[in-house]
Amino acid sequence: MDKRIVDILVPMSGRGGVENVINMVSDKLIQSGYRVRVVQMVYTGPEWVGSDIEFYPVLVKKKVDNVEDFVGMYAEFMAVHGRPDVVIATPWPFMAYVARAALKSLGLESVKVAAWLHAPVKVYKDNGTGGMECLSFADCTMVLTRKAVKQIKEVLPEHRVELVGNPVDMTGIEPISSWNLDNRTLLYVGRISREKRLDIIIDAMSKTQSMWKLRVIGDGDELASCRERAEYSGVSDFISWQGWKNNPWEDYNDVTALVLASDYEGFSLVAVEALTRGIPVISPPVDGIGEYIVPGVNGYFYRQGDSGELAMVLDALAGGILPAVVPGNCVKSVAMYEKEKVLTGILNVIESLMDA
Fold first, then answer.
1. Looking at the chain, which terminus has fewer C-beta neighbours within 10 angstroms, N or C?
2. In terms of DSSP H, where are the helices of the chain?
3. What is the pTM of this model?
C-alpha cells in the first residue's frame, strides 16, 4: 500500500527556528510511516531541509511578481507530482488560502488543509501575508500560544484551533549547576533584524551602572548598524560578535541570562532552549514569552522598547536587589515543550484530519 502523503507548503525560507521545527515535524511524520514533501514556492537558498526529506523548490532563484501566483504554482506541482492526503500550510496564513485554492482548481476539495502559524496573526496581517480571513480556508489552525487560540476564536468561533507549542530537543542537555553573577554575561541568539531590536540591548548596556558583557550569535540586515551603534555608545569592547552558528549552545556555562528585546515573538524557541539549560530569560512580555516566563522564578520582564528599564533590571541583578534564579526552576518551567511530547501532539492533529 502506498504511503499517505503530507505536503508542507512554505512560501520561502531562511535559516532559523521555523526551519528547524519543520525538519523535526517532517522527521516525525516519516518515522510514523508517512511520505513528506516540503514544497517551497520561492527558493534562493540556503539549504535547510534534512537530507532524508523530499524537497521541491518550485521557483529557484527567480522573483515572483505576485504571491497570488503561488496558487497556480502549487496546482501545477500537484498535477505533475500527484495529490497529497493533507497539506500543512506554513508559516503565513496566506498559505492556507494558496493550498485551498490550488486544491479546488484540481477538484481536490476533500484534501484537508492545516494552517500552522509561528507568530501572532496580527504580525502576518501587518506584513501583508494574510490574516484571519485566510485561516477560514483551513480545516484547522495549529498555534503556539494560548493567546493565539483566544484571538482566533474571537473572530472565527467555529474554527478548529489546536495549541501545539514548539518542540525542543532536550536530549543530553546538561543544565548549569548553579547561577551566579560573577561573569555578568548576557547572550543574544537570533536574527539581527529590525523587529528583534538588538539596538535596545546595546543602549541598555551603555546606561547601566554595573558592567556587563554581551555575546551576540546571529546575523542579519541590521548587523552593520548595530555594530555602529555599539561603537557610538562606547560599549563595543564589551560585545562579542560571533556570527551565525549551527549550534549556538556549544558553550553556555558562563552565561548569566539570555536577553531579548523583540517587538513580537510567536513563541521564541531560543528562550525555551535557554531555560532548558537552566539559564533565565530577560525580555519584554510579548506574545509567546508571556506563556512561560514567571518574573523572579525563571526570568525577568521589562517594558517593551525601554532600554532604561532594561538597564535598571541589569543593575538590580548585579546589586542583588532582584531574587536569584534557581536553574532547576528554569528547566521545570518548559518541560511541557519536550520534543517528543510536542511532535506527538502535532502528529495526532494531522492524523485526525486525514481520518475525518
1. N
2. 17-31, 69-81, 94-105, 121-126, 132-135, 146-155, 198-207, 223-233, 269-276, 307-318, 327-333, 339-355
3. 0.81
How far apart CA 15 and CA 20 sit, in angstroms, is 8
pLDDT of residue 20: 87
Q: How far apart are the first and last CA of the chain?
A: 20
Going edge to edge, which strands form the sheet with 86-89? 54-60, 35-43, 5-10, 86-89, 112-116, 140-143, 161-163
284-333 residue pLDDT tens: 998 778 888 999 999 999 999 999 999 999 999 999 999 889 999 999 99
Q: Which helix (H) or strand (E) holds 89?
A: strand 86-89
Q: For residue range 223-232, what is the model confidence (pLDDT) as tens digits? A: 999 999 999 9
Q: Work out the average pLDDT over 100-107.
A: 97
Long-range contacts of 46-55 (CB under 8 A, 24+ apart): 46/15, 48/13, 48/14, 48/15, 48/19, 48/23, 49/19, 49/22, 49/23, 50/23, 50/26, 52/27, 53/23, 53/26, 53/27
Residue 245 predicted with pLDDT over 70: yes
Contact call for residues 117 and 90 (beta carbons, < 8 A): yes
Beta bridge partners of 239: 214
Distances (CA, A) of 319 to 171, 202, 208, 316: 35, 20, 11, 5
Whole-number percent of the chain with pLDDT over 90: 76
Report which residue type is found at 299.
Answer: G
295's grid cell: 518574573
Q: How far is CA 96 from CA 74, 121, 234, in A?
A: 12, 13, 47
Do residues 179 and 330 make contact, with C-beta atoms less than 8 angstroms apart? no
Please choose, from the candidates 276, 236, 6, 286, the residue with its C-alpha nearest in 3D space to the C-alpha of residue 123: 286
Assigned C-alpha cell, 273: 532552549
From the CB of residue 61, how many other CB atoms can be counted at a distance below 10 Å?
9
d(CA 257, CA 229): 22
C-alpha cell at 34: 508517512
**pLDDT of amino acid 1:** 60
Which residues touch 342 (CB under 8 Å, ≥6 apart)?
164, 165, 166, 167, 168
Q: Which three cell numbers stand for residue 325?
A: 534564579
The 3-state DSSP class for residue 310 equals helix
